[in-house]
Amino acid sequence: EAQRGGVDVLDRWRVINIENDRPPYIVRMRRVGSRDVRRVLEDPRSSGSAQAGENVELAILAHRLINAAGPWAAKIAALYRRSLPVTPLQRQVYLLEPPGVDLEPLPFFLDYPQDIYFRHYEMDGRPAVLVSWSDPAEPTRIDFTNHGAQYYETKVKPRLVKRIAAFHDAKLIGSFVGHYELSPDKGAIIGPVPEREGIFNFNGLSAHGVMQSRALGEALARRHRGPVERRR
Length: 232
Hints:
elongated; 3-stranded antiparallel beta sheet; 21% helix; 5-stranded antiparallel beta sheet; alpha+beta
């Protein structure tokens, strides 16, 4: 939909620097190979200026920038010399074979105070159950390490079974890792960046991004229309 509206999507380009303190900004990027994506995403040194020997392959002149980098938002903010209180929190996600419990017609379940969620899911076209939990004791960092079946058995399963006992014998069939993007009050950070004209925050949405992003995006666009939009 974005491309039909005239948007160019640049996949696997790493932003290595943002130059100037006011528009136009120069955004410098380096191409990242498929095998290097995870390393670049996890490497805490990947923010900041280009390292020695790095070749800048692309530079874009931008009058407006939106920092919608999720758990990486603070790293991007550092490139335009601003601090941003958004921290990543690892979220372990597990997929189960449905144990005779059909969640498909039911809503997304978010169980407080256990902070566990589960819902219907599909894996390779087959019905499954997705369940996820974050350990608040985990360090706040980007880390795609999967904690595995033992972690599920000891940390996640007891919380799930406490809510629906029928999941006790559910078979584990898959897993992956994602991240929350946490602000201090777990609310979104939206709007212009102080002393950086033309740069806007759109982050801190955490697990609410899919639900809130369209309304927040429209509100941001209406509130901060520039000369080009007004002429139209």
